[in-house]
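ok so i was messing around last nite and threw this chain in just to see what happens. nothing serious, just curious
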Amino acid sequence: MQAGGIPSPNEDEEGSVWKWSTSDDESPMVSGSGHVSKEITDADLLGQWAETLKKWHAHLSHRPKQVHMLCRKGVPEALRGEVWQLLSGCHQSAELVEAYRILITKDSPCTEAISRDMNRTFPAHEYFRDEGGIGQDSLYKLSKAYSVYDAEVGYCQGLSFLIAALLLHMPEEQAFSVLVKIMYDYHLRNFYKDGFQDLHLRFYQLERIFQNQLPDLYGHFIDIQLEAHMYASQWFLSMFTAKFPLYLVYRILDLFLCDGLNTVFSVALALLKDSRRELLALDFEGVLKFFRVTLPKKYRSEPAANSLLDIANRTKVSVKKLQKYEQEYLAIQAAQVKQEDPLTMYERDNKRLMETNMRLERENDSLAQELITSKVTLRNDLDSAEESMESLCKKLEKMSREFADSEEMVKRLSTENSQLKEKYRSEVCSVEEELKRNKEIIAQYKDICNSMSERNEKNISSYREELSKFKEVMTHCSQCTGSLNITAPARPSVDQSAASKDKKIRELELELAQTKLALVQIECRSQEMSHELTNKHSELQSIKNNWWNKGLTTLREAVNKKGDAS
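result:
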């Protein structure tokens, strides 16, 4: 699987692994070939990258020193998308991300050219294989967005391969940001400008370095009349992404984003050095076929690709020599211009100006169309806004009336609330007075009962004393002993008096119990009235708040919509 859960080109639809044929057939390698594993084979390298990225994120504007050495060793596939964004300086690309979301909605004059290249870009990779699939859709949108963003360059063949390599490691918005950085900050867009003049300058610089470092192979190419543009065009225009296996492509992009354009010269010289013997033995047709078919297949295995990159890392390209060769090229061009027939020069300039004029006319037509569309859209928006404003005004009037009605209701409810409060207050006062009166009655009853109980106890005790004295006197009198039995029945009268007093006490207790029951009922009634008053007060307050909040909210919404519409 590739980054983002994308199947690798070595897996078929059922998920089984298949390998590219190792036979040296006549057909060239299809772009997007090769398998790049996300498995960690070098834990030490991963640990170094993790530590370096931690430092890097702490100071995004400062690239750690270890990055150059680590890029030469290779970026782990799992970290490649993050590292590429940091290397290209996309850690602050919010503006580009937002620009991309707008650009994909615009039309491009390069739509036909972009559509033609969709099926040619990485057809060996599962992500871009299906016509109209997710991969091709993302590739199309990003290519179109850049052609609108950079109208001077537009779209050229070769860009789609670089874009596809980026999309395999990051989402569309981030891939667009990295592409813009590569085209502008790494000066890749200069290859596509002004009739590819900067590209021809790079070809000249490559040939001069080639002449110094591999003179015998350079002489052989001179003998068979093979020029740099015949084999190195795709190397510069697509950053080696068009024909080589993906493992090598990714490693080259690691170095390119780290070191810049000099990487292209180093890798190009490494390719020539590594195939020097085979190239010396071939003629013109054989050399072209070797570059087209055989050379990419040499690096299908990771050891072969790593060996090539070791040669590239050891190949030094002097910046001073590149500047010197640039001056030579400019001097040669100036001399050719002087020797050139003025009519031919004018015709060439006229052709270039006509092309520029046609491009500007296309841009002007596109802008005019956008202007017309914008005017129509603005007119429609204005009409819609006016209709919305009328509707909002009607709603505002309706809400104003409802607000006035709610105010009246609030006033009425406030009056009712005041009346309820007054009624509650009078009820509470009467209940309190009744409670006070009942408490006084209860206290009086208690006092009476206590006094009667005390008097009863005193009477009983006095009776018992008198009775005991009487019995004592009569026991000492022999004449009264007989009459004692006769007078004995007089005791029931005393018991009857005591029973009468007990009955009266029970009646008082019953009356006291009835008084307490009445008091409890009064208290329950008072609590019910208090609860009812509290509920009515809460309902009144809730109604008041609801109408008030609803009226204010509606009024605010109406005012805000009216302000937005204006």
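not much to say yet. Residues 1-24, 486-491 have pLDDT under 50 and may be disordered.
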